[in-house]
Design brief:
Elements (H helix, E strand, L loop, with lengths): L19 H15 L11 H4 L1 E4 L5 E3 L6 E2 L9 E5 L5 E2 L5 E10 L4 E12 L8 E10 L3 H8 L3 H43 L1
Parallel strand pairs: 1-5, 3-8
Antiparallel strand pairs: 1-2, 4-6, 6-7, 7-8
Helix pairs in contact: 1-4
Length: 198
């Protein structure tokens, strides 16, 4: 039976309900585990990792697909993990814009704040696709606490989102392994046949 590594949760097992400070401590421990692997997996550009939805059609569209203006210190092409908070990002009426905060963790292991200015610039009732006017400000968070406060997100929610990303890495690596194994088997049959034909 595989031994379960409890080094991440060990300090909290005997605790009752965890305080905000303890959850932030757990997030720091998760970060320490994840950071060495951030440059080993495929990560999306931060601008492509965020998706907004039109409140009437519920049609999702990534922020990066609308050629957003980058107005922050960090380029949109920077790769990493990023999420809106639990309220998500909804696009409303034509001509009205609003700001939606988000958080991110770059491939370099830096926490960032993301502020998305988004509004419906064009509405075509007979088409599914809507064009959004978007500006994105990605800036260094300088501290985990500032990132959590800016994005209005809990440490628990950030841990959940990181777990989603790691699960996605696992699925993609498993699929890649299975494809490589199948290819190896087919080429191995060719090699075996060649051995009999020489």
């Amino acid at each position: 039976m595989k031994r379960i590594d409890t080094d991440l949760i060990g300090p909290f097992l005997k605790e009752g309900k965890l305080s905000q400070e303890q959850m932030i401590d757990m997030l720091r421990r998760v970060y320490d585990k994840v950071r060495p692997h951030l440059d080993k997996f495929t990560l999306k550009p931060l601008g492509d990792g965020l998706a907004c939805v039109h409140k009437d059609s519920m049609f999702y569209s990534s922020v990066g697909s609308h050629n957003p203006r980058s107005v922050g210190a960090i380029p949109l092409e920077t790769q990493g993990i990023c999420y809106f908070n639990d309220t998500g990002c909804y696009v409303g009426e034509v001509g009205k814009t609003r700001f939606q905060p988000a958080w991110g963790l770059t491939r370099q292991g830096d926490w960032v704040t993301i502020n998305v200015e988004i509004g419906l610039a064009e509405y075509k009732p007979n088409e599914v696709y809507r064009e959004y006017a978007v500006a994105v400000d990605i800036s260094p968070a300088f501290s985990l606490e500032r990132m959590l406060e800016f994005a209005d997100v809990s440490a628990r929610a950030v841990i959940r989102c990181i777990e989603f990303s790691v699960n996605d890495w696992m699925i993609k690596r498993r699929q890649l392994y299975e494809q490589a194994a199948e290819l190896h088997e087919k080429i191995g049959l060719c090699q075996a046949l060649l051995m009999t034909k020489i």
